[in-house]
Amino acid sequence: MTGIESKNYSSMTEGKRLVHQVVVPPKDSFAIETGRVVRETFFHDVGPLDWFKGVSRRQQCLLALKYAFPIVDWLSTYKLNTFLYDLLAGVTTASVAIPQDLGYASLLGIPAVYGLYTSVVPPLVYAVFGTSRNTSIGIVAGVTLLLGEMLKREISPTADAANYLRLAFTATFFAGVFQAGLGILRLGFITEFLSHASIVGFMAGAAFIISLQQLRGLFNIAPAHFSRHTDLVSVVRSVLDHTDEWNWRTIVMGIAFFAFLSMTKFLAKKKPRLFWVAAIAPLVSVIISTALVFLTRADKHGVMIVGYVKKGMNPSSAHQIFFSGPFMYSAVKIGLVTGLVALTEGLAIGRTFATLCDYRMDGNKEMMSFGFMNIFGSLFSCFVSTGMFSRSALSYNAGGLTPMSNIVMAIIVAITLSVLTPLIYYTPSCILSAVVISAVLTIIDLKALWLIWKVDTLDFLTSLGAFFGTLFVSIEIGLLTAVCISFVKILFNITRPHTAILGKIPGTTVYRNMAQYLKATSVPGILAIRIDSAVYFSNSAYIHDKILVYLEKEKQRLGKIDGPKVCYLVIDLTPVTNIDTNGVIAFERIEKAMKKHGIQLAFANPGTSVLRKLDNSDFLARLGSEWVFMTVGEAIQVCSILMNHQDA
Amino acid sequence: MTGIESKNYSSMTEGKRLVHQVVVPPKDSFAIETGRVVRETFFHDVGPLDWFKGVSRRQQCLLALKYAFPIVDWLSTYKLNTFLYDLLAGVTTASVAIPQDLGYASLLGIPAVYGLYTSVVPPLVYAVFGTSRNTSIGIVAGVTLLLGEMLKREISPTADAANYLRLAFTATFFAGVFQAGLGILRLGFITEFLSHASIVGFMAGAAFIISLQQLRGLFNIAPAHFSRHTDLVSVVRSVLDHTDEWNWRTIVMGIAFFAFLSMTKFLAKKKPRLFWVAAIAPLVSVIISTALVFLTRADKHGVMIVGYVKKGMNPSSAHQIFFSGPFMYSAVKIGLVTGLVALTEGLAIGRTFATLCDYRMDGNKEMMSFGFMNIFGSLFSCFVSTGMFSRSALSYNAGGLTPMSNIVMAIIVAITLSVLTPLIYYTPSCILSAVVISAVLTIIDLKALWLIWKVDTLDFLTSLGAFFGTLFVSIEIGLLTAVCISFVKILFNITRPHTAILGKIPGTTVYRNMAQYLKATSVPGILAIRIDSAVYFSNSAYIHDKILVYLEKEKQRLGKIDGPKVCYLVIDLTPVTNIDTNGVIAFERIEKAMKKHGIQLAFANPGTSVLRKLDNSDFLARLGSEWVFMTVGEAIQVCSILMNHQDA
Hints:
2 copies of one chain form a homodimer. In chain A, helix 4 (about 80-110) packs antiparallel against helix 15 and helix 4 (about 80-110) crosses helix 17 (about 430-440). Chain A is built from 25 helices and 8 strands. A 6-stranded mixed β-sheet of chain A has the order 4-3-5-6-7-8, with helices on both faces. The first copy, chain A, has a two-stranded antiparallel ribbon with strand order 1-2. Helices cover about 60% and strands about 5% of the residues of chain A. Chain A folds into 2 domains: about 80-490, no CATH class; about 495-645, Transcription Regulator spoIIAA (2-Layer Sandwich). The first copy, chain A, is mainly alpha-helical. The first copy, chain A, has helices at about 30-40, 55-70, 70-75, 80-110, 115, 120-130, 140-155, 160-185, 195-220, 230-240, 250-270, 275-295, 325-355, 365-380, 390-395, 405-425, 430-440, 445-455, 455-470, 475-495, 535-560, 580-595, 610-615, 620-625, 630-645, and strands at about 135-140, 385-390, 500-505, 510-515, 525-530, 570, 600-605, 630.
């Protein structure tokens, strides 16, 4: 007991108690304070652990097993009925996955078969550890493009294909290590620094770039002749510089199937019950176009085809990972960046569907699943994979209920790899390009952009920064621009916080911002100001100046109307959630300045930590703790009474 | 008119009006919004300009002249009485300035006379433009050390003295350009990013380092044999490695005068009226020790002396400034860093005395004065100068009332340069070291450190970071560490904001944090939560999760005591000063989740911009604008009535 609690804060009005006590809360020990910070930073989403108490040892083991391996949880209550839905969802996603995987592999500049490998191992691993029921796993456009761009900066995929592949596996391995590490250390909040606005802008930019990359396939240009850069100018120049390679058969076929795919999408949008038409359209396109090429032998007329795809399941790549040398360091860097972007995207998708279907997804466990699936994946010839929005949405529409849909999809792709690869031989490259373009254009979310524009102009700027940065420079610069704009925005809000003059709402004791509530009226002789931000070093000087300017204006106003002089300054601290040493000093300087002007300072509704800090600095004792009130209303009531008392 | 204002927000209770309307404020146009941001960012400290209206053209010109050249303002009403005070203040500061300037020059590794030059031109320029009455101008320890450290990294002061000097002048020139530019562009808020805690830590570290540097003079070690690094380890090694150069006469004299200086300081602290004893002590020490050396010819026994000091006023150095070449780029960088640090220190000192003497100091004009004095200074052989705390305090104690004290000081130093330099010939170096150590040790502000420790543990960490970074690595690293810790602290507060469950204060309609007000009670069936921060991308997921966890806990609590189930969730938005797209999405997800649980969401007291954004995003229309209340009390009142109505 420091005697703080026994201070009498309402001694001014004798006899009748007018105001409520505001006592300084006892200081928490350093250990308790640190514990709180650690809990809120790392374990805020852990609910009460009561379900673990009061059950037998055997049940506790089962619960722990279910916690570690969510598959145990849902498989123990799995029903045939559920499986039918998951089967449909799995078949639907596989039919999109196969052409997409073949197409996306070209973004990396590697044989198409590696795209298929990545739809086998990671989804299986995810099914064991994942906590999202709808997330469908695969290589996604944006991450793959980013990975390819960063890899190509280290090694050329055409000149040194073997080391390029090794570097890709190593980067995937470290991406997984990094993701799992973040989950284990519960540092998931790092992914929150990518705002919605940045992601929308980045996705739109990436969709554009990916579509541009696919122009290569559509126009039948050889990979070696195509730009290694991803920006708009280089790509368009690549296409226009090689008109000699253009092939009318390829172009016509590509555009025709692109039109077909777009039509089915339009149909699915108009009549949601026909979603399956759009879902199977890519597979249908691949089958028809492959048959066409086979029958007309268009490949003899220059139409590029996928060609020989190695039969068989994922080969092991464990021995190919660099565990030393300069390439390892490059791979760590690439893994860090792509792992973080993949995580952000995957988690956002998981959160979306968890909200739609009303279940809790554990962010940190989800990160660990992503990490494990990429670590395992890198040992079996897979690349960085994550949750895919388009496929997850298909799975959700098809009624998928558990991660079983991922297992079904993986099995179908595995069967394709083992048996059906010869059928892919005649698949024209242009059809894969058409499938990819048609898929990625849907991730340009104009509706979201429109909403952002309506809600927050600065957020819209963030989106534009990410979009144009991605489109004209590179994906990393795009993301970096967006993150920087986001933080500058926050810093601006902290450096120049909002302040308001408060007035009384007629007929109440409630005081509100006079600029917002036009009916609110001020009390002559008392100036009430609300500070709408924590008071930190970055804004303490501003707040100090601002309050003095308000005071000066009020004096001038009162001077004009021949009103009373200002006797009291009440500062509403409700929104002041924290304060630092600079803040305390600013308040001390305000108090001194007020004293010189013969004005009494009073505070209303300070929070726990603010009150404690003002007390620790002895400022409260100097001010007189009777000048701290629970509400602005009570503060002004007391000031009015004292003012009338002085007049009388 | 969008019809927003005509919505009836209190239609639930027929007949009797229970609650107050919360109308969505009309949207400001983009231009008005931008104008507000610009005004608050750049012109927040400009009060009403009424003094400029309604006067004659001639008076307007005079006012403008006074605004541009503050010297016109104070000189037009200058009185002899005022001059006497300023004369005393000027003489006192000059008596400290001369020995300090000679000593600080050694921090830069240049002839002592340059230190004196810097006390002539900059104070004169400052007197014309400055708005602080007490700031005394000169080269200060911290900035000079930083300047020296950065210069020596480019050019050696012993090997290439001519270019070293040129680089120093160029850096000073660009520091001035940078400072004046910040003032003209009104970007002064950049200096606010150095928090009080960082400055206290940095100053203490710099004081230690400067004292260490002075060990060279105290132990009589030749400059060429002394470490060029400033960190603790290198300096102590330098001293111990050259015991052969130690000179007992130097050491005894240095320590004796250091003891004398310390004693006078102690005396001045005990009896503030004797401050002049401490003020003239440095000059007395210099005079006595110089006489001693001259009489005993101690310089023949190895005692280092200042030696020949060039007679005459500041030579021009305009032709020595690099306006091209690689040195220019280095100088721009050095000027930027030292200019910013000098500005921060000078402004802080100005603000301190402005508060003490209750007058307004114009931050941006002050920056321009600093800029002009450094630009002019660099043309007349001066180095980066700024306001000095120790001398300003002396000037304040001596009763200085206007910048005239700077003019007096400059004239005295100029006379010394013109006439008295031969007298300095026999001044021993050790006495200058003793004066400098004695001066800088006072800037170690243990009281401030103790206050910081009491108020804010994280701020204390910032101080320690700045202190140890400066002491063991370098001044830049020290400052950088401090700035980083400060920002991480702010980001933590934004990423994991405080939230509180609200309860009713008995006998009122006021709702407050139940953890702070232990008497507050919750209303069964209604959960009221306050979010203590703006809702941004960096915390929207946390706030979403946190609210769901609160709800889960409340359900469990009610389940145990067999209470009613939760029907209403009231979110108090009073401290939510802003919101971005992520925040809107988080609220939408909370609303959806609540709907699934059959819980009605309500908001209390949203601010102007939050309300507008919720409305723009159509969220308000979906929620139903009748669920937005002016106070938590009214929200809960309505919810209670509806709950009872359902039960009945």
